[in-house]
Amino acid sequence: MSTQMPPVSYIEPVYRPPSEANSLILQVTNGCSWNRCTFCEMYIDPQKKFKPKSEAELLEEIRRCGQQFPGVRRVFLGDGDPMVLSFRRLKTILDAIRTHLPNVTRVSTYALPSNLKRKSVEELQQLRELGLTLIYVGAESGDDEVLRCIDKGETLQTTAESLLKAKQAGIKTSVMLINGIGGTRMSKQHALSSAKLVNLVQPDYLATLVLFSRRGNQRVAEGFGGDFTALNQRQLFEEMELFLSQLKLQKTIFRSDHASNFLVLKGVLNRDLDTMLRQLRRAIETPDRVFLRQDSQRGL
Predict the structure, then answer these.
(1) What angle do CA 102, 103, 108 make, to 5 degrees?
(2) Which H or E run contains 277?
(3) Alpha-carbon gap, residue 129 to 143, rounded angstroms
(4) Sign of torsion over alpha carbons 236, 241, 242, 246
């Protein structure tokens, strides 16, 4: 009796944004081409050393997915930054998705700002026309000093330029920031500079998570010269309150519901800003309230 070959192969672990839970994940690259951020543990295992999947193998996987999952409507390109690939290869991938998975209405991917910068607006427009309609960018912070300390390889300017280029090409942007990434010493500048970045780029989606590490913050602390103290729950809320209070957004969908967050915040900014600020103030003033997630509930 013949057995059907699995449509895709993965080198685990595989990560994707929470909103891509129902998407078909194609592992276009293994790992992250930068992989130097001190806070990130996603791609540090030996088997996650960066390497693009061969084009022939990937195209065959897309063909098999078309046979076995013809109704797929969303596709997420992993791992850390498929946008490092050449325009030609990305175009080939999107052409294959369009051919073999004709019901797909959205293709999305993670992207490093530096890799977006290497693509022209015209190239990004062509990728958009072929179905790449959403990119997720982990900006982490808008503060240049914080970005240097975490070895992000970006600045406020490079991140903003790349996001604005994507928006100019008609690609939606989802920006992620890390609450507490500057520690107690840089908390204020992190909040204010991050708000400046977000106000400048006006992302379609904005998300925050809390700095956390299963292996401890030693690598993070080393980047700050050893002068790093993680924020406690109250300080995290105060930093978030300062950040949100500075936002001037037109219509950005905001989510702070990652497993790391103590307080879930959702809404559209700035329409729902006052409601969120009230929620934060209540959390600061009554930290023992049941609406806050306890450590056992945070899924870390």
Answers:
(1) 95
(2) helix 273-285
(3) 33
(4) positive
At 298, list the tokens: 């945070």
Tell me, what's the pLDDT at 257?
A: 86
3-state secondary structure (DSSP) of residue 267: strand
Residues 136-188 pLDDT 10s = 999 999 999 999 999 999 999 999 999 999 999 999 999 999 999 999 999 99
* Token pair recorded at residue 105: 């209405």
What is the tens place of the pLDDT at every residue in 38-81? 999 999 999 999 999 999 999 999 999 999 999 999 999 999 88
Report the alpha-carbon distance of residue 71 to residue 51 in Å, rounded.
29
2, pLDDT greater than 50: no
Q: Tell me the pTM.
A: 0.93
How far apart, in whole angstroms, are the C-alpha atoms of residue 212 and residue 291? 21
What is each CA distance from 142 to 53, 151, 154, 167, 274, in whole angstroms?
Answer: 32, 13, 9, 18, 23
Q: Six-digit token pair at 167?
A: 């928006």
Q: Which tokens hold the place of 97?
A: 């998705």
Nearest to 132 by CA among 173, 193, 160, 161: 173
DSSP state letters, 78-131: ESS-GGGS-HHHHHHHHHHHHHH-TT--EEEEE--HHHHHTS-HHHHHHHHHTT
Residues 95-140 pLDDT 10s = 999 999 999 999 999 999 999 999 999 999 999 999 999 999 999 9
Residues 6+ away with beta carbon under 8 Å from 84? 29, 33, 52, 112, 115
CA angle 184–187–193, rounded 5-degree value: 160
C-alpha span between 26 and 7 (Å, rounded): 10
Asked if residue 93 lies in contact with residue 60, where contact means CB atoms within 8 angstroms, the answer is no
CA distance 74 to 19: 11
**3-state class of 170 per DSSP?**
coil
